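can u do me a favor
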């Protein structure tokens, strides 16, 4: 039954998105540039100050990369942009919902992200060597994306294009951008890249904040998000079984 709803959801979302994005852009309290200044987002300073503690927990999670679900397994709708098994995502918060089991595995990171105002999503984004995430865009201008560099390849070229700007991650530094601009990612190295990816609501005035909030409320209740939450829960159950077997051995 849900599969039958998907085309209607897509059609409605596509029709509403330009209107929503326009209202939000006109009432934004931060610039509408593709790449933004982290100084406009006070929470980024706390992330930078604590990046090593976050990195330590990310390293523990990513020690066996295949224990972390691929994004295309969590959200099949990402299959078109996420090469199978190459882009892995350990969700702490997803689409406005916490993932209690994963938060418990990363208590320091959990406390830091839960203090971020208007948090929508938080996850360790793990990009395997040689991965290319092709050109794509995000769902709504009502969200701003933050990347905190945790493990960045020392050789090769690991980079992201946002609109017409090329940016590169640095360990302990934050990148802020509007993912409704077309963007793509390359890990042209022999090493794995790990970042903490945060999405928060864009600071905006009335009526932009109201419109963006209503749109996000609807997104959270779509079959897409319900399916992703179910897949995260299913993966966590499988990870518990794997961990139990390892501990028993």
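np, heres the sequence
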């Amino acid at each position: 039954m849900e599969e039958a709803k998907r085309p209607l959801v897509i059609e409605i979302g596509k029709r509403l998105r330009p209107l929503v994005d326009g209202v939000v852009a006109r009432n934004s309290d931060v610039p509408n540039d593709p790449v933004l200044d982290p100084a406009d987002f006070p929470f980024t300073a706390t992330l930078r100050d604590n990046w090593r503690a976050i990195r330590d927990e990310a390293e523990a999670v990513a020690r066996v990369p295949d224990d972390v679900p691929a994004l295309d397994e969590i959200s099949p709708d990402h299959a078109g942009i996420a090469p199978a098994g190459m882009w892995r995502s350990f969700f702490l918060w997803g689409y406005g919902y916490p993932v209690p089991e994963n938060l418990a595995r990363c208590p320091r990171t959990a406390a830091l992200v839960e203090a971020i105002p208007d948090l929508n999503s938080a996850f360790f984004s793990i990009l395997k060597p040689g991965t290319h995430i092709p050109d794509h865009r995000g769902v709504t201008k009502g969200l701003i994306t933050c990347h905190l560099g945790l493990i960045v390849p020392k050789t090769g070229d690991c980079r992201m294009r946002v609109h017409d700007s090329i940016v590169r991650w640095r360990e302990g530094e934050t990148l802020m951008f509007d993912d409704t601009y077309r963007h793509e990612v390359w890990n042209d190295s022999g090493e794995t890249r790990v970042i903490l990816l945060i999405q928060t609501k864009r600071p905006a005035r009335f009526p932009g904040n109201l419109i963006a909030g209503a749109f996000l409320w609807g997104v959270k209740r779509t079959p897409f998000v319900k399916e992703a939450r179910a897949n995260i829960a299913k993966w966590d159950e499988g990870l518990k079984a794997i961990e139990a077997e390892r501990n028993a051995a």
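The chain is about 40% helix and 25% strand. hope that helps!!
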